[in-house]
Amino acid sequence: MITATLLGATGGPGRAQGGPRVVGTGLAGTAGLVLDVRGYAYTADRAAGKILCVPPGGEPMVYARVDSPTALAVDRLRTLFVGTASGDIFAVTPDGAVSRIFRCGNPVSGLDIDRDGNLLAATGKGAIIRVTRDEFRFSR
To answer: Cβ distance 86 to 70 under 8 Å?
Structure first.
């Protein structure tokens, strides 16, 4: 069971006075955590291949499915990027469409977006790859 609770500043269940807020529980095997410009949190359940979204003040929901997710990044347009153990990188658009945009050939261990909107991918082989938006190849 997955639950999410946002609590007030004065404490409550799962929160000591002045302690951290519990945002999600029951998220076993998660990979990465990113927030978009609207405050939505995204994480990946590696074993189940699920990308979970937690809206502000809401309950976690399955946002997309991708085999063996390992890393996440989100851009200012709210496109979520998902790296995988197989080396594929997927883009999940705000309408939920999932497309493979790049294959780097090695497991993806980290993702980020640079100031120009290009994607940076760290691989399990010790390389950092920059993928420009022009190099994205959308395929399902």
So the answer is: no
Residue 44 amino acid letter: A
Collapsing DSSP states into helix, strand and coil, what is residue 48?
coil
pLDDT tens figures, 66-87: 999 999 999 999 999 999 999 9
Residue type, 79: T
Amino acid residing at 56: P
φ/ψ of 117, rounded to 5, equals 85, 10
Task: Give DSSP secondary structure letters for 91-137.
Answer: EE-TT--EEEEEE-SS-EEEEEE-TTS-EEEEETTS-EEEE-GGG--
Beta-bridge mates of residue 80: 74, 92
